[in-house]
Design a protein that fits this description.
The chain is an all-beta fold and 142 residues long. Strands 3-4-9-8 form a 4-stranded antiparallel β-sheet, with no helix packed on it. Strands 7-6-5-10 form a 4-stranded antiparallel β-sheet, with no helix packed on it. Strands 1-2 form a two-stranded antiparallel ribbon.
Length: 142
């Protein structure tokens, strides 16, 4: 049992520590939005990124490259209205994120593949010859 100190002295508290292991009371719980977890793998020919973004539809996700920055973002807005004789309820939610990655100079911006399946966005960023220069590009998601 923990001891709580007050201006009236010390006394034991059964409530101290009761909430400290709940996610709602963690120090970073309210630092929203959360960025999706990402795995990055480099091979000789490409970089492979896996972003965990469940709950989004393919149409909600945007992937683009501008200069040497790869941006992955998504946004969902939902609203539900329910009216009855005795009550009215309006629920809404909003979820979004924007994650950016610094790209190395040896990538082929014209050959980036994106696939979204089962809540995982897979990006394949192919490398290029050092003599070729790429332009900015918007990537379509399959």
């Amino acid at each position: 049992m923990a001891i709580i100190k007050s201006n009236q002295g010390s006394y034991p508290s059964v409530f101290n520590g009761l909430f400290e292991n709940l996610p709602l009371f963690e120090s970073d719980f309210f630092n929203l939005p959360k960025l999706p977890a990402t795995n990055v793998k480099e091979t000789d020919s490409a970089f492979h990124l896996e972003l965990a973004i469940p709950g989004f539809k393919k149409e909600d996700i945007k992937v683009n490259v501008e200069e040497d920055i790869l941006s992955v973002s998504a946004e969902i807005k939902t609203e539900k209205n329910e009216k009855n004789e005795k009550f009215a309820r309006r629920e809404f939610s909003y979820s979004s994120f924007n994650r950016q990655f610094q790209l190395p100079s040896n990538i082929n911006k014209d050959n980036i593949e994106a696939k979204y399946e089962n809540g995982i966005l897979n990006l394949t960023i192919n490398k290029l010859d050092k003599n070729i220069v790429s332009k900015n590009k918007v990537i379509s998601i399959n």
